[in-house]
Design brief:
alpha/beta, 2-enoyl-CoA Hydratase, Chain A, domain 1, four-stranded parallel sheet, two-stranded parallel ribbon, 8 strands
């Protein structure tokens, strides 16, 4: 008798679990957490509709450590080298941006592995360096409320006042260097020592690297 009761109880639990798994609430939770089962079906539909290989790049808009970097380009290339056999690539992109050099590399990687058949889908926002990736694609697909931003790639800068590394505009970094250099060579500064100390904080190689971003 005890065994029969346990079997009945298990059946009830199974029915309860099945109801929860297929309930509208479960779907809401999956959507909020970007559940893999939901994403897998949607990615499959996009691949069939656009006839290409879909890769997804989503990053946080609130965490500075999640800004686009060379590691992301390496990750994408490593994945394509194993998973992609050739043909069109569709990148679903949602990012606040980051390194302009990383964005350029991601474009080069996607173009190389797709024979130039590289497209981007922006469901929400692609800002700064992420906008650069969009401009490197053959086609840009955007939702009615999707946004691109100004091409303003970010670079890591050592903040001497706080001792920490911050993300700042590459253009702002280069522009501030050029302004200091202009003051130093123009003779308008009464004491050159102060300008030399400020210029010592800049790396000329770093400036050259980001000059044309």
């Amino acid at each position: 008798m005890a065994k029969k009761k346990r079997r009945k109880s298990n059946k009830k639990n199974d029915r309860g679990k099945s109801f929860i798994a297929h309930s509208p609430w479960s779907r809401v939770v999956d959507e909020a957490s970007q559940g893999w089962k939901l994403r897998k079906d949607l990615i499959g539909k996009i691949e069939r509709r656009l006839r290409g290989k879909v890769i997804v790049y989503f990053s946080s808009f609130f965490d500075e450590d999640a800004m686009m970097s060379d590691k992301d380009a390496e990750m994408i290339e490593g994945m394509l080298a194993v998973e992609h056999s050739g043909g069109k690539i569709i990148l679903i992109l949602n990012s606040a941006g980051g390194s302009g050099l990383a964005a350029e590399r991601i474009v080069n990687v996607c173009r190389s592995y797709s024979d130039g058949k590289f497209e981007v889908i922006v469901p929400h926002m692609a800002k700064s360096a992420a906008t650069m990736i969009c401009f490197g694609a053959l086609w840009i697909h955007m939702s009615p409320t999707a946004e691109l931003g100004p091409v303003d790639p970010q670079v890591k800068y050592h903040n001497y006042s706080t001792g920490e590394k911050d993300w700042i505009s590459a253009q702002e970094y280069v522009r501030s260097y050029e302004q200091l250099m202009q003051k130093a060579v123009s003779g308008e500064a009464q004491r050159i020592e102060t300008l030399v100390q400020q210029l010592a904080r800049y790396d000329a190689r770093f400036i050259e690297q980001h000059f044309n971003l």
